[in-house]
Amino acid sequence: MTPGPTSALASGLAFSLLSRIEDAGLNASAPPQQRWVDGWLVRFSPGKAKRARCVNAVADGRLPIAERLAACEAVFAEVGLPLIVRITPFTRPAELDAQLESRGLRSFDDTRVMVLGELGRLAARPIAHGITITAIGAHAFARRVGGFRGSPLAQQQAQAERLINSPVPFSAYELREDGETVACGQFAREGELVGLYDVFTAPAARGRGLAGVLCRHLLVEAQAQGARHAYLQVEGDNHAARAVYHRLGFTDGYAYHYRTRDPSAA
After folding, report:
1. What's residue 3's pLDDT?
2. d(CA 131, CA 150)
3. Whole-number mean pLDDT of the chain?
4. What's the whole-model pTM score?
5. Per the CB 3.0–4.6 Å rule, which of 55, 166, 231, 237 could disulfide with 85?
6. Which of 4, 75, 85, 3 minimizes the C-alpha distance to 37?
7. Which among 44, 52, 48, 263 has a CA at the least distance from the CA of 150?
8. Whole-number pLDDT of residue 83
């Protein structure tokens, strides 16, 4: 893949690693509801995650952009979802972002893919008294994180279905403090790559370092399973979360965003 002009790739990180991370992220977010449209991977899950209900333009294709967009829009219309297109440095064709802007599709959700190049530098630390971190199943995790986020039951069920059917295995955990679940998160490992997903701390428990404790635990567990490099995806303006990840050693790898013409899509 050749990177497009939309989002600069970070200096100091190998293009081959970032390209592998993009592929791993696509694999880890794969829902059962997806199909190919002339080189574009169209995903239409009813869940909350936009990665699972958007167009990923990963190949140049043969049809004009207007025809492909119309075909994708028809797929989303069939299932009652708005058309959303994800734009990354790897998007093909490279001019797609400008083409979508000229057609009135607005940009939203500037997101950063952060990378920890070498997990060997991260060591386990003692966990404070009263805190436990326990592995849980996909359905329980979907209920936990969905409850924290206020997601409707249909979105929780769609996430559980996606996790169970994922081509990349997920490992989910909850963090309890004095018996109460106050944070949760999971990782998806594909060979030497591990991605952190759905890390969430209950609002009343934020600002006390619990997310960092949980993320370190996830990374150490993944490292024990053979992971060497880590990645995650976080909104660019989520400064509190980005600070947690920076302290763990993550740096920005690349950025992506979405485009849509539907105001409700975001």
Report:
1. 41
2. 24
3. 93
4. 0.92
5. 55
6. 75
7. 48
8. 97
pLDDT digits (tens, 9 = 90+) for 72-110: 999 999 999 999 999 999 999 999 999 999 999 999 999
- Is the backbone peptide bond immediately before 93 cis, with ω within 30 degrees of 0? yes
Q: What is the 3-state secondary structure (H, E, C) of the chain?
A: CCCCCCCCCCCCCCHHHHHHHHHHHHHHCCCCCEEEECCEEEECCCCCCHHHCCEEECCCCCCCHHHHHHHHHHHHHHCCCCCCEEECCCCCCCCHHHHHHHCCCEEEEEEEEEEECCHHHCCCCCCCCCEEEEEECHHHHHHHHHHHHCCCHHHHHHHHHHHHCCCCCEEEEEEEECCEEEEEEEEEEECCEEEEEEEEECHHHCCCCHHHHHHHHHHHHHHHCCCCEEEEEEECCCHHHHHHHHHHCCEEEEEEEEEECCCCCC
Neighbours of 64 (CB within 10 A): 10
pLDDT tens digit sequence for 234-262: 999 999 999 999 999 999 999 999 999 99
CB under 8 A, 24+ apart: contacts of 179-184: 181/144, 182/210, 183/210, 183/211, 183/214, 184/136, 184/141, 184/144, 184/145, 184/148, 184/214
Mean pLDDT score, 154-174 = 94
pLDDT above 60 (res 1): no
**Domains with residue ranges and CATH for the chain:** 15-111+256-260 (no CATH), 119-255 (3.40.630.30)
Roughly what angle, to the nearest 10 degrees, separates helices 153-164 and 138-149?
A: 140
> Is residue 43 within 8 Å of 27, Cβ to Cβ?
no
